[in-house]
Fold this protein.
Amino acid sequence: QIPWQMLIYMRNRAFEPERDYPCLRDLILRMRQSNGTMPAMPQQAHSYIGLYGESLGMIAPIQEMMLQSWDGAIRVFPAWPKHIPARFDTFRAEGAFLVSAAWKDGQIQALTIVSEAGKRCRVEQPWEDAFRIMDAKGTQVATAIEQENIICFDTVQGEAYEFHRGD
């Protein structure tokens, strides 16, 4: 399958990380060239436009597995396979937030959010049990709950917020 066919295939059915991640990984490994591009269209017909467009189209599903924020709420590792450790640094989320996180043993291990604009932050609860959010000074941040599992808190421009599991 070529990338655009893979994306159409994935959009037309429910995404299952354990089933679909290996297919995406294999596709990227097969299509990747030594210079980092992933041509999915014949270069003779589309020049280099196919190289750039398809490279982004292949990486976007992987990023969406790690971070989603399309509705104003940040979701970390919402569709990542439970058995594969992962980490990302400074992925951009809706609302001018930079998110960094780590995943291991089927759960979030670390989560930090930097506010670039000082807006209210909305995050899907990263753990079922208790947790707290600390600012850079080590002060616990006041939070509110929306829609049962969306945690909201006010931010200061340029400030980093670390999520800690437990009380």
The longest helix spans residues 49-66. The first strand starts at residue 67 and ends at 68. The CA atoms of residues 31 and 99 lie 28 Å apart.
